[in-house]
């Protein structure tokens, strides 16, 4: 009887070792863009208050949204999108359990914003032809990849201390 529990414990240990680390589930392009967006997320946190302290109006753009007025609501929205991307990217690189869920939310928000901008540009006052953007293709690949690794991420191992 005791031998069976020892074998079961060893099988559980072996099964746990066979589960890949979460970072191994990420492709090279996910790691690259995550590193980029960690930096832009940090810049977003510090640059927004800095704009008001220095009376500067830098041009900022993301997903087709553009603003060069620090007091506009659009500048706040773009900054918040960069911060959301930074949080998702940090979670993925740090192998946090919640990272894929935040990443999926970030991806879907990005897709919705891209679609809104494309539709607005087409039917808006300027009536500009809005081609399918590269951002939309990259965001779709991002969401599909995160959806594929979601189950393995949830049961995967985090950083080993």
UniProtKB/TrEMBL annotation:
Going by the UniProt record, its keywords in alphabetical order are: Membrane, Transmembrane, Transmembrane helix
Superkingdom:
Bacteria
Q: Which residues cross the membrane?
A: 28-53, 73-93, 105-123, 129-147
**What is the designated name of this protein?**
Uncharacterized protein
This protein's species is Chitinophaga pinensis (strain ATCC 43595 / DSM 2588 / LMG 13176 / NBRC 15968 / NCIMB 11800 / UQM 2034)
């Amino acid at each position: 009887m005791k031998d069976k529990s020892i074998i079961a414990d060893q099988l559980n240990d072996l099964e746990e070792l066979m589960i890949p680390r979460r970072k191994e589930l990420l492709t090279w392009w996910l790691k690259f863009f995550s590193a980029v967006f960690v930096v832009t997320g940090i810049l977003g946190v510090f640059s927004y208050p800095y704009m008001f302290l220095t009376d500067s109006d830098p041009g900022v753009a993301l997903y087709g949204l553009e603003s060069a007025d620090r007091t506009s609501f659009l500048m706040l929205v773009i900054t918040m999108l960069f911060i959301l991307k930074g949080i998702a990217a940090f979670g993925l690189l740090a192998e946090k359990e919640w990272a894929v869920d935040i990443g999926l939310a970030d991806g879907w928000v990005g897709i919705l914003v891209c679609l809104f901008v494309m539709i607005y540009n087409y039917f808006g006052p300027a009536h500009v032809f809005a081609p399918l953007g590269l951002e939309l293709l990259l965001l779709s690949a991002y969401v599909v990849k995160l959806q594929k690794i979601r189950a393995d991420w949830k049961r995967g191992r985090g950083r080993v201390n």
